[in-house]
């Protein structure tokens, strides 16, 4: 029987596109020094707080909340840094390059999210003086719901951290030559060190430095890039000619990926999930001393996010102006869209020593800030929601702080991700805005939301892989791509004669189920709506709570917050009469935590006692006693 013959021959091959191998050589020793300087600054801040201010972090509040005495500015910068990850910095320019400026309208959702987070969600957590946002769920529902919420967050944040580090590391490695595994290990090592040693104070100040580096690096790149292609007018006109300028797509269909509605309405639900109830952000609100300062930090964060979105979006237009007639994706110069921005930097500024290193430092600043926030928030959740509630004896604040430090090391290795932000938003919204909801409704609603969103999200990916769903891109060209020669090992295979021909199937894949076409921007809205609707239906079926007997600290007073110009009667209606018959003596057994007395030079402001905590007994437990 004849066999196949394989022959390897070295040949010179002409390729069309950008010679990435040549660009990689431009990343010099100076660039490595610039990149290393960022890591050194981050480590230095952690060492400073860990060694020089160790007494201030001897207890839980000092370590996890900075003693609740951090300034508005570092808190605001940390809010920006926490979820403006390296994926965002690379993904936004790629999105605008491929699909145009419509995505920029998501920035208007920030101005809806900010007042909701600052005046509806944040005051609940602040008044309760919690450390973990999920303490609220035990107070409002039960310990089971608290553990469920905390577990969902841990899974979500751990996976998100892995993607935030690995994805940009992979993109940068293929364009700059930085080893992907080395960069991943270095980022996690640096984050673990400064987060473990310096606690929340180190995290906030390193985030501040990293935000400045992010803005500075991207601004330097787009200014130089704009000048190279002829200025802003040329960038804009090129985008117009290439159909990249679009802002007013009002198509009401929820299946259209990006429209005004999906970006503003869907964007609101996506971002309120982060800024309303996410532990990493809530922890930053609680680092400042007053609600006014927390609200100011959220507003500063809003304008900072909008500015960063605009800068990254404009970067996408600059990249398009550069590669209008030589698309790196079509020419196979790069394999994924998130490599476009690094390619552009190396192509236009790679010959300037230090600039590629500054860009890499800016991108990895996004990764560092997200990972440090994740490690710190996961430490808080684990101690507050998984250790303390299930420990019969009291745990000293000093011991809790030590556990948090060790957990900061261990949890950094568990990095995985999940589509669970929407169900968590729905769970908190059910508790804060619907006083009739009970713990059974919360439990069933949360699982219902998880099932529905995973069905839709996973189903979309399957249908896309099967070819039933196609995502369209705007046209590109490779007409003016340069040509270059490379030497490659060509493998030639001589096939043995065969008398059998296997036909290639060409069956029509058919159409996907309609729900799978839903824009991803609506995922959080869908999941949170399912949680609220199912939660309320189950609550009414199993026995609702009486709003009049509820602790008013656990419910958002809509009438007070939204109806300042309404008559008193209407304000009372919108407040659902919450707490009108509430008697604090009815909740004996709800042990009130007080701020620890000043010790070791660590001062706590009077009047800022922590009224909530894991010792508090939920309404479900109190009902069972009666």
Automatic annotation (TrEMBL):
It is a multi-pass membrane protein. It comes from the Eukaryota. The chain crosses the membrane at residues 32-51, 72-91, 103-126, 147-166, 178-197, 209-227, 258-277, 298-321, 406-428, 440-462, 520-543. GO terms for cellular component: plasma membrane. It holds the Pfam family SSF. Residues 587-626 are annotated as: Disordered. One of its GO terms (biological process) is sodium ion transport. It is found in: Cell membrane. Its main location: membrane. GO terms for molecular function: symporter activity. Keywords: Cell membrane, Ion transport, Membrane, Sodium, Sodium transport, Transmembrane, Transmembrane helix, Transport. Belongs to the sodium:solute symporter (SSF) (TC 2.A.21) family. PANTHER family: GH10366P (PTHR42985:SF39), SODIUM-COUPLED MONOCARBOXYLATE TRANSPORTER (PTHR42985). This is Sodium-coupled monocarboxylate transporter 1. It comes from Amphibalanus amphitrite (Striped barnacle).
């Amino acid at each position: 029987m004849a066999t196949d013959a394989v022959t390897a021959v070295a040949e010179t091959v002409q390729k069309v596109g950008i010679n990435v191998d040549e660009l990689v050589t431009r990343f010099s020793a100076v660039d490595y020094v610039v990149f290393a300087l960022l890591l050194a600054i981050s480590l230095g801040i952690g060492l400073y707080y860990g060694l020089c201010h160790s007494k201030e972090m001897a207890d839980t509040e000092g370590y996890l909340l900075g003693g609740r005495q951090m300034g508005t500015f570092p808190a605001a910068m940390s809010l920006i840094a926490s979820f403006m990850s390296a994926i965002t910095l690379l993904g936004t320019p790629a999105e605008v390059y491929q699909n145009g400026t419509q995505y920029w309208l998501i920035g208007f959702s920030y101005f809806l999210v900010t007042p909701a987070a600052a005046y509806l969600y944040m005051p609940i957590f602040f008044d309760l003086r919690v450390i973990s946002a999920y303490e609220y769920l035990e107070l409002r529902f039960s310990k089971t719901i608290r553990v469920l919420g905390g577990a969902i967050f841990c899974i979500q944040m751990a996976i998100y951290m892995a993607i935030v580090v690995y994805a940009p590391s992979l993109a940068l490695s293929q364009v700059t030559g930085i080893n992907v595994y080395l960069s991943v290990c270095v980022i996690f090592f640096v984050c673990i060190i400064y987060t473990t040693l310096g606690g929340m104070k180190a995290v906030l100040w390193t985030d501040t430095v990293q935000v400045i580096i992010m803005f500075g690096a991207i601004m330097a790149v787009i200014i130089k890039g704009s000048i190279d292609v002829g200025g802003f007018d040329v960038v804009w006109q090129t985008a117009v000619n290439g159909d990249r300028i679009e802002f007013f797509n009002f198509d009401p269909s929820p299946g259209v990926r990006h429209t005004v509605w999906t970006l503003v309405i869907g964007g609101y639900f996506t971002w309120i999930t982060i800024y309303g109830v996410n532990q990493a952000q809530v922890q930053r609100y609680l680092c400042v001393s007053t609600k006014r300062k927390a609200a100011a930090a959220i507003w500063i964060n809003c304008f900072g996010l909008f500015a960063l979105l605009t800068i990254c979006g404009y970067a996408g237009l600059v990249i398009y102006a550069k590669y209008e007639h030589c698309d790196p994706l079509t020419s196979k110069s790069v394999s994924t869209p998130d490599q476009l921005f690094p390619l552009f930097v190396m192509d236009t500024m790679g010959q300037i020593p230090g600039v590629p290193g500054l860009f890499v430092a800016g991108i990895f600043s996004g990764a560092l800030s997200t990972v440090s926030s994740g490690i710190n928030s996961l430490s808080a959740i684990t101690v507050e929601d998984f250790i303390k509630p299930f420990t019969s004896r009291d745990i000293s604040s000093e011991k809790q702080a030590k556990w948090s430090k060790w957990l900061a090391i261990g949890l950094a290795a568990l990095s995985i991700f999940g589509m669970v932000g929407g169900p968590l938003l729905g769970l908190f919204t059910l508790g804060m805005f619907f006083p009739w909801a009970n713990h059974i409704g919360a439990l069933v609603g949360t699982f219902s939301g998880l099932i529905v969103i995973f069905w839709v999200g996973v189903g979309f990916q399957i249908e896309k892989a099967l070819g039933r769903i196609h995502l369209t891109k705007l046209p590109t060209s490779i007409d003016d791509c340069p040509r270059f020669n490379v030497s490659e090992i060509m493998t030639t295979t001589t096939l043995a004669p065969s008398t059998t021909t296997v036909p290639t199937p060409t069956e029509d894949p058919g159409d996907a189920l309609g729900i799978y076409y839903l824009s991803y921007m609506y995922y959080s809205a869908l999941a949170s709506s399912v949680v609220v609707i199912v939660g309320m239906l189950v609550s009414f079926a199993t026995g609702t709570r009486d709003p009049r007997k509820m602790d008013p600290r656990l419910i958002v007073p809509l009438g007070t917050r939204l109806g300042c110009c309404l008559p008193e009667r209407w304000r009372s209606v919108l407040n659902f009469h919450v707490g009108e018959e509430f008697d604090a003596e009815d909740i004996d057994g709800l042990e009130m935590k007080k701020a620890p007395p000043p010790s070791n030079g660590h001062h706590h402001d009077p009047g800022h006692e922590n009224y909530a905590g894991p010792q508090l007994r939920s309404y479900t437990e109190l009902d069972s006693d009666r």
